[in-house]
Design a protein that fits this description.
Blueprint: E1 6-8, E2 14-18, H1 24-38, H2 51-66, E3 71-77, E4 80-91, E5 94-101, H3 110-124, E6 130-136, H4 140-148, E7 152-163, E8 166-176
Helix pairs in contact: 1-2
EC number: 2.3.1.-
Domain N-acetyltransferase: 14-173
Pfam families: Acetyltransf_3 (PF13302)
């Protein structure tokens, strides 16, 4: 799989790029600012305690990208970091999508643009033809995003993920781009 590490993707104000080490301070600052909100639906925010933690994650993500096991992209909107979008796993032509967007960019279709571009990009490159979005049953924004992108609800997994001291159920959405 040969994709540019940095590519301008439509719409014109959206840029997706593989994270670089120099992005670690800005990513950490954004996580710090968004931590109370992120920890409600994601398991990892409390494990990111320093710029060094962000740097290690970036390095690990780049290794996995090189092995074609996952692909984590920094989302920039008009040059400002808006969040991350990823194929958390890439297995047997199926990509499991994850993302988070800072509160400043919610409601502006940034997540929709980023996820739809990744789907289009990897489909046109003939790398993937099946896509999955998993989200907490409490995360209505992500459920609406999946449905808006044409994903179909496949199943609900009870107690799929532990966040803090409670277990959350997940909706599992699927989209196939096969003929």
């Amino acid at each position: 799989m040969q994709l540019d590490f940095y590519q301008r993707i439509k719409p014109p104000h959206l840029h997706l790029s593989i994270q670089e080490e120099r992005d670690a301070p800005a990513i950490f600052a954004l996580i710090e600012a968004e931590r109370p909100r992120l920890r409600k639906t994601l398991p990892w925010p409390d494990s990111v305690r320093s710029v060094e933690d962000s740097l290690k994650t970036i390095r690990d993500n780049r290794i996995l990208f090189g092995q074609a096991k996952s692909a984590v992209y920094l989302i920039r909107w008009d040059g400002e970091i808006a969040g991350l979008v990823a194929f958390n796993t890439l297995i047997d032509r199926e990509g499991t999508i994850g993302y988070w967007i800072s509160s400043a960019f919610e409601g502006k279709s940034v997540a929709y643009a980023a996820v739809s571009c990744l789907i289009e990009w990897y489909t046109e490159a003939d790398v993937l033809d099946s896509f999955v979005i998993r989200c907490s049953t409490e995360n209505e924004r992500s459920a609406r995003l999946a449905e808006r992108l044409g994903f179909q609800l496949d199943t609900i997994v009870e107690k799929a993920e532990k966040i803090g001291d409670r277990y959350l159920d997940h909706r599992v959405y699927r989209l196939s781009t096969k003929g």
